[in-house]
Amino acid sequence: MLTKNLDIGSKLINFKERDMFLEELRDFIDEDLIARQINMADNPDSAKIREIIAKARSIERLEPEETAALLNVKDPDLWDEIFKSAGEIKKTVYDNRIVTFAPLYISNYCVNNCLYCGFRSQSTASKRHQLSQDDIKKEVKNLLQTGHKRIILVSGEHPCSGAEYLADSMKSIYDTKILRQGRESGIRRINVNAAPMSIGDLRKIKEAGIGTYQVFQETYHRSSYSRVHLSGAKSDFRWRLYALHRAMEAGIDDVAVGALFGLYDWRFEVMGLLYHAIDLEKRYGIGPHTVSFPRLNYAEGAEYKGDPSYKVNDEDFKKVVAVIRLSIPYSGMIVSAREPKAIRDEVLALGCTQTDGSAQIGIGGYTSEAEKSSSAGSKQFELGDNRSLGQLIRDLAAKGTITSFCTAGYRCGRTGGKIMGLLKSGHEGKFCKLNAILTFKEWIEDFGDQAMRDLGNQLIQKEFQEIERDDFYKGKRLVSLVKEYYQRIEKGERDLYI
Length: 498
Ligand code: SAM
Ligand code: SF4
Fold this sequence. Notes:
The chain has helices at residues 15-19, 31-40, 46-57, 64-71, 76-94, 133-144, 163-175, 199-207, 222-228, 237-241, 243-249, 266-284, 314-327, 341-349, 369-373, 389-398, 408-411, 416-424, 427-447, 450-469, 478-490, and strands spanning 97-107, 150-155, 177-180, 183-186, 189-193, 210-214, 255-258, 290-292, 332-335, 354-356, 402-404. By secondary structure, the protein is an alpha/beta fold. The chain folds into two domains: 9-21 and 93-388, TIM Barrel; 31-87, no CATH class. An eight-stranded parallel beta barrel has the order 1-2-5-6-7-8-9-10, surrounded by eight helices. It has a two-stranded antiparallel ribbon with strand order 3-4.
């Protein structure tokens, strides 16, 4: 039964919940207004751009006219100022660390026909698989053996992979433990990237312990959206546009926006992401926890290979990243292994806060050797960077960056409105720094070789020196606490966080 392609999209849409957020029957993407804002900002003067940069540096979210002005900058020197500020804003809000995670693909059955995707219903190139709960546990054990603590669960959209299957899978993941050097290790946070759901279904995955719920709008431009989403529930632009609003209604206060760059003009998509953040802020007082900006990659079985006029080259990609960093300064930003190492390194320095390591995007890819080597298997698209988690951590450490596996914010209730306040004041970054050190210390102890441990400990000592110089920590017990926890981790304790 599962091998059949079903066009049952409309049955997955609850029309009342789709339309409940409209204002005067309109949604928050006004294409004409965005086009006007982009056109009117043509050739902005440098004094105005510097004012906008200063506003972003004070961790204030920008208004659309301000973002439109940044998108129109032509002067290379001004772009250099924007790039430099983007890196500094990241340092203020999130400090000097990169959070890492692994994608876990559990099913590629899909009712939708997104023309760019290898999982689309009409593709015969894709082998269809859905992992059983035992398969999932095997995958998680393999991921735990590399040191991962955070997972993003990914699935196609199909009745066989609805909310119950996702919730069961999350339970299997949280229940799976391994012993590493005599100590128990498990996944501490599961984010989910799956189809838009009804509020009732979202409550089920909230109960199962979701971290962040991610839905990428792909493109905010309606006719471009319709061109590549031909059938299935995903062909309904608004059902997707309000997926994160429904999540908020279901009590999931940690949501992530994204656009697939290459489907329409990149400037328009950046404006769409900003309007999405603004509408979430307006209604719930909370913007997106993270923003993703994947570029379209080659996918076996995809029909749409990209319109050359919308292809985002590396120079423009860096602009996308920097302008998002300035426009929504409080949000985390994710660059995935879709991007090759060189450009990944560049945009990490421009404000990205999260990236994946050892990524396998075939179904069962962490377990099956065949999946890893097969290019015509069950992969959604091709990756640009196949570095293992260990290599990624070593490379980042060599540049002075700590890799964090921190999940403390979520487990201490620092989510939603609470975390937004802490991020905007720059205080969350201070906790991030401490917890990054502790989780990095755990990883080098359990998974690093002697050279990695030496490099890692040197880096941590530098971080301690920075902490001692920082006024925020002066007179606070946090400094002695992080050093005490560091010692206790060295002696074998695990999962200590602040
Ligand atoms: N099926 C669900 C959906 O579409 O929302 C969830 C996961 S989908 C597997 C995750 C994301 O991968 C999509 O939202 C899309 O942005 C991205 N994606 C799909 N095809 C891609 C491609 N060829 N290159 C890069 N990213 C792609
Ligand atoms: Fe299915 Fe998601 Fe791929 Fe679209 S992008 S075909 S919904 S898996």
